[in-house]
């Protein structure tokens, strides 16, 4: 359920990275209970690491986009 709420962000913000978050969290929500029933901590760690990695990824992409906007496209 937590991962599914990231799906609208793909179209709202135009960032396919949110699909990665949604797919990872929804997939983990289906797989982890069968592999480790009764262990909720693993799901929390998977979700936390996923959000951390995607946050860093989006930050790097945003910094690169800002750098391209500030750089002159050609020299006179």
> What's the count of strands?
0
Structural Rg: 17 Å
The average pLDDT is 85
In quaternary terms, these chains amount to single chain
Instruction: Describe the sheet with the most strands.
Output: none
Unreliable parts: none
What does this structure look like?
- The chain has 76 residues and is an all-alpha fold.
- The longest helix has 30 residues, at 41-70.
- The protein is elongated and about 65 Å long.
- It has 3 helices and no strands.
- Helix content is 72%, strand content 0%.
- Helix 2 (17-35) packs antiparallel against helix 3 (41-70).
Give a quick set of tags describing it.
76 residues, mainly alpha, 3 helices
Sum this structure up briefly.
The protein is mostly helical. It has three helices and no strands.
Question: What is the secondary structure topology, with strand pairs?
Answer:
Elements: H1 7-12, H2 17-35, H3 41-70
Helix pairs in contact: 2-3
């Amino acid at each position: 359920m937590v991962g599914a709420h990231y799906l609208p962000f793909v179209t709202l913000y135009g960032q396919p990275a949110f699909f990665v978050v949604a797919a990872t969290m929804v997939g983990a929500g289906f797989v982890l209970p069968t592999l480790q029933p009764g262990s909720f901590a693993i799901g929390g760690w998977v979700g936390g690491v996923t959000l951390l990695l995607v946050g860093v990824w989006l930050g790097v992409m945003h910094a690169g986009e800002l750098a391209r906007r500030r750089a002159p496209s050609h020299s006179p």
